[in-house]
Amino acid sequence: MDLLPKRARFSRLSAFVLGASGVFALATGVCAQSAKPNAQGDNSNAQGNNGPIVQTTQGRVQGFSTQGITEFLGIPFAAPPISTNPSAAPCSPTNLRWCPPVVHAPWLGVRQATAYAPICAQIETLGVFAGPANNNEDCLYLNVFTPNLGGHQENEKENEGKLPVIFWIHGGGNLDGETPGYDGSKMALQGRTVVVTVEYRLNLMGWLAHPALDHEGHLFANYGILDQQFALQWVRDNIANFGGDPNNVTVGGQSAGAEDTGIAMLSPLDKSLFERGICESFCPSSNFPTLASAEATGVAFAQAAGCGSGTGPSVAACLRALPAAQIEALAGTASTATKYVIGPIVDGTIIPEQPIPAFTNGHFNHVPLMNGNVEDEENFSLAITEYFESPREPLTAAQYENYVNTRYTSPPYPEGTAAAVLAQYPLSAYPTPQQAWDRAGTDPGICAERSVDKILASQIPLFVYEFDDETAPFYFPAMPGFAPLAYHTSDIQYLFPLWHGGPNPPSVIHALDPRQEHLSKQLVAAWTNFARTGNPNGVGDRLWPQYMPTSELWFIENLNPHGLTTLTDSQYAAERHCAFWGSLAAY
Questions:
Q1: Which of 6, 195, 240, 285 might form a disulfide with 145, Cβ 3.0–4.6 angstroms?
Q2: Which are the catalytic amino acids?
Q3: What is the per-residue pLDDT across 460-483, written as a single tens digit (0 to 9) for each?
Q4: What is the DSSP secondary structure assignment for residue 351, as one 8-state letter?
C-alpha cells in the first residue's frame, strides 16, 4: 500500500506542532484525573457545596476542596467572543467575533466553579491530542488550583504569604487543545504554587488577518494571544484573593503554549504582566507570517467561505455571520489542516517584529527563562501520521527517503541538502526507518533553539534542558513497530498527573511507575522553584546550572543511567549534529 501521499500532508502539520531538586512530599490521590468534572456546572447557588467562596472583579465564585487543594474551574475571564448580531457595530457587545476580548458582565449571587467550562472550537487535527471536536465560541474561561485556601474566603482580608503563580498555556499547534487534561493540583500542592490554566481562541477563530477586520480600529489578527493577555490581566487583578502573588507570575506552556510564552516575551502588551517564562518545546526560533501574507490568506479564506474578495465592512459582516461549523470545516479535518490556518502573525503591535531580530536586538521583555525540549520531538508527528493510516503500518525505508527528499529540498535549503541529510542520518545507523526519521526531523529544530539560547544567554538568566525519558507512557493506541521514545508531549504527564492528550477513548491514561514518579517530583520541584525565585534549584542545590556564554551546560532529565545529569554544550551539539545543520544555514 502506498502511504506516501498521506505522509506528505503532515509536513506542514509538523511545523505547527514543533515550531512546549528539593522535593516536597506529595499527598497520595490528590491528582486523579477521573475525579475531575469535564463539563460546565450549574452557575446558580448550589445546594450542599461548602467549598471556599472568593470575590473576583466580576462576582463571587465557589470552588471545592480536596486533599489539600482548592480548585475553581470554569471561571469566565472575558465576555463570550460571539456575534449574535453581525450587523451591529464591529466589536459592540453583540458583535464580538474576531474582536479583542472584553470584560465579562458581572453576576449576582455565587457562581459555581466546580466543573470545567466548554472548550474552544477545534477540529481534532492532532488526533488523540485534541478535542473533542466542537464549534463552541463561548470558551474564554480559566481554572485556578491553589493550596492556600482552607476555609470560607468570602470577605476575608488580604493575608500574608502569597504564593507564586504559574499561568499555563496549553499546546496543540494553536489549532487544538484544552485545559481539562491539565490538572494543576500536583504543582500547586507539591510546589506550593497557585496554578492557572487558560482557554483561548484557536485556529481560524484565534488567528485571522483580513483587511476588512484589520481596518476597524481595534487590535487584530492575533486574537488568541489577546485572550491570553486578557487572562493575565485577570490574574493580576484577582489572583491575590486565591492566595497567589500578583507580582510573582510565571507564564509557561508546552509546544504552541511555549511559542505563545515566547510571544509574551516579545509583546510590549505583556510587559509588567509576568516575571518569568517557561518554554517547554520550544520558544519561537523561526519567522511568523507577515501581515501582508496573512491578509492574503484571510482574503482567500473569505472567498472560500462565500464572503467574496472585497475588503470593506460588508465582508467583515459576512465573516461574522458565518456559522461556526462552517469556519471549523474550513479550518481542517480530523487528519489534516488547510492552508487557511496560519497561527501567530507579525501584526506590528501585538507582535511587533520577527522573533530572532527581536531577541538579537534586545527588543523583548527581559525575564528569567527556562527553555527546553524533548529528545524525540518528531515522533509525535510520526505517531499522528501512523494513527490516521489504514491499516496502521510501520514506516518504510522508501517513506523515510521520500520525507527527506521532500522536506529538505531547495529553496530554502542549499542544493544537495537532501542527499547530505541522508548521508548524515543513514538508515544503517538506526534500528528502524522511523527512528532515522525522528532524528532527521528533530535535530534541526533543537539546533535552531540552541541558537536562540545563545542569543538570550547574555541578556537574561537562562536555564536550558532536554527531557530524555524514553520509557514515558504513550497515550496513543498501540501501533505496529512504533517506538515513541521521549516523544513531543511526553513530558506533560510528569507535571500534570495522568495527562492523556485528549478524549479518552481513543487516548489512554497511564499512571507513572515509581521511577517515573520520582522524576516527576524532581521536575515539579524544579518548575515551581523557578516560579518562586527564578532559579529551578532548591536552596543550596546547584544541580541545574545556568546556561551562560562562558559555561554553557545542558540539563538532561532522564531515568537512566544516572537520572538528572548535565552535558556540556559541545557534547550536546555533537549529539544533535548542530555543526551539520549550521553549515546548511537551516535556521
A1: 195
A2: 255
A3: 999 999 999 999 999 999 899 999
A4: S
